[in-house]
Amino acid sequence: MEHNDRYSKKKYPTIEEAEALLKEAESCNPGPWGNHSRTAAHCTKKIAEASGLDPEKAYVLGLLHDIGRRFGKRHLGHVSDGYSYMMSLGYDDVARICLTHSFNEMDIDGYVGNHDTTPEETELIITKLAEIVPDDYDKLIQLCDAISGAEGVMDIIERMTDVKNRYGSYSPSKWDTNLGLKAYFEKRMGMDLYKAVDKANFRP
After folding, report:
1. Tell me: the pLDDT tens digits for 114-158?
2. 202 assigned to some structural domain
3. Domain-located, residue 203
4. Using CB atoms within 10 A of its CB, is residue 72 exposed (0-12), middle (13-18) or buried (19+)?
5. Domain for residue 201, yes or no?
6. Which structural domain range is residue 94 located in?
7. How many domains does the chain have?
């Protein structure tokens, strides 16, 4: 019975529920991260539609990848906060994305930003990351996180350069992995990434 329940329950919320969760989270910790998340959701949906993935699932995962920011201005801490929060609601697929979106090489050492987690939170991230083999949804959110600004879609090089300037460093291998993700999805879609997500016109 438990086995069937596990697979009959959807592990992510509806679009309406996800939008409500984001809105509530923004009231707890207002900031540009909300519109960054909306841009990511737009991009994930468009790429999913063009590459044979589930657009609704992709949109919800994109919208909630940063939901851990609900709990305040943290860096690495938003990863463990988001994971724990989504697991508490039974949204396992979203919890997974809260973890994987920040680690395109699936390694905590590649995180760009302050390591402001407790030893327990750090252990949680390391342990759970080790259990995951990245799938196309993990890769999709990682890519869209790297092109999504609060004002709209950004050029991936400009976005990574912005992050590098803000934090003082950006791993060359992480940089190359992001460019690899761009190439991977462009091949799947058979079209230019920025055209697919309507970079010129979309505003959150």
Report:
1. 899 999 999 999 999 999 999 999 999 999 999 999 999 999 999
2. no
3. no
4. exposed
5. no
6. 2-105+113-196
7. 1
Q: Report which residue type is found at 157.
A: I
pTM recorded for the entire structure: 0.93
How many CB atoms sit inside 10 A of residue 51's CB? 20
Segment 1-23, tens digit of pLDDT? 344 444 446 899 999 999 999 99
> Would residue 41 count as lying in a domain?
yes
Among 92, 100, 94, CA closest to 63:
94
* Domain CATH for 52: 1.10.3210
Number of C-beta neighbours around residue 177 at 10 A: 20
Tokens of 106: 């699936």
Listed as own residue / partner, the contacts of 174-183 with beta carbons closer than 8 Å and 24 or more positions apart are 174/104, 174/105, 174/110, 174/112, 177/104, 177/105, 178/104, 178/142, 178/143, 178/146, 181/104, 181/139, 181/142, 181/143, 181/146, 182/143, 182/156
**Angle of CA points 137, 161, 148, to nearest 5°:** 35
Over residues 22-65, the pLDDT tens digits come to 999 999 999 999 999 999 999 999 999 999 999 999 999 999 99
